[in-house]
Amino acid sequence: MVIDLRSDTVTKPTKGMLDAMLNAQVGDDVYKEDPSVNALEKRLAEMFGMDQALFFPTGSMANQTALKLHTQPGEQVICDKYAHIYNYEGGGASFNSGISCKLLDGKRGMFTASQAKEAINPPDFYHSPLTTLIEVENTTNKGGGACWDFNELQKLRTVADIHNLGYHLDGARLWNALVAKNETPQQYGELFDTISVCLSKGLGCPMGSVLLGKGELMENAIRVRKILGGGMRQVGFAAAAGLYALDHHLNRLAEDHQKAQEIGEVLASRSKIKKVEPIETNIIIFELDDGVDEKEFLNHLESKGIKIIGMGSNKLRMVTHLDYTSAMHRHFLSLLKTI
Ligand SMILES: *Cc1c(COP(=O)(O)O)cnc(C)c1O
User: Fold this and answer.
1) What is the residue with the minimal CA distance to atom 1 of ligand 1?
2) CA-based, 20 to 30 A from 186: which of 52, 57, 127, 153?
3) Residues 165-198: pLDDT tens digits?
């Protein structure tokens, strides 16, 4: 048995999802003639109470498009030092939009409204880049699946309003936060100018992300997507997977969270583990004891059929997901108790 806990992106479409994909109505989405893509975009726009939704091949492209919509070259975005847009999108912020990131020293990928306020460059001080955007991530990836306090997100909205800044949410795993904190998509739609959500993480789709946003701002999104090479044709096969996932794979995220919690409890009891970070959703980040060699530890797990990844600075990560079954979970917990 191979148990792959490297990421929640390793899932394969279920039988039900594959059936939905095979039966999808499709058309040329570059002409906006794909009924399945149109249905998915409409459904998500309504769910979040946003004017517009646009389907993307990847979350990175959706985020990169958002950065471009909010900024001009030379400007600056405020984000956490752990932000995916800064660490894991290949330098896209500078490559695509010609902007810089003002990195905040937050906790588990989250900062405060006053930290953001302090980081805004005075608009009349022309020596500094002009600050035009605040970007947050919920849940935080490098921060270990942590969920933002909604109050703080509201305070950030006020800061953005006062200083005339855009406000973007990288919601690759927003679904996990909604389930964990019992929040609604509407709450988020009311707060942000743009939101990206992934279908290929916890929801278990083979591909796809959606960018949601306010009307005027989103007018240019389809052009930016085309420029980035993201105009796709009969992509309704993928959108159909997304529609299926919203019906069948959203509420079950609570199971992934429960399993992550149980793994964390066992890890915390093992002498080779120095520290397990608080677990709020489906991501477990932990540190090995000083005497334990990371490579040896990973190799040992690999020899038992368990795949996990290193995050640098002695941290390791596991992510629970749709294809991590209860049988795997039982097996893995008993194995953990022997290391
Ligand atoms: C996965 C992820 C993305 C998008 O990644 P893609 O692999 O490009 O789909 C964006 N933000 C966060 C926080 C993520 O975890």
Assistant:
1) 172
2) 57
3) 999 999 999 999 999 999 999 999 999 999 999 9
CA distance 37 to 233: 10
Q: What is the rounded CA–CA span in Å between residue 97 and residue 61?
A: 12
How close is the Cα of 124 to the center of ligand 1, in Å?
Answer: 35
Q: What is the pLDDT of residues 198-249, one digit of tens each?
A: 999 999 999 999 999 999 999 999 999 999 999 999 999 999 999 999 999 9
Structure tokens at 93: 């912020």
- Beta bridge partners, 102, equal 78
Tokens, residue 315: 């941290």
pTM: 0.97
Q: How far is CA 289 from CA 29, 223, 272, 286, 301, in A?
A: 52, 50, 5, 10, 16
Instruction: Determine the atom of ligand 1 nearest the C-alpha atom of 89.
Output: 8
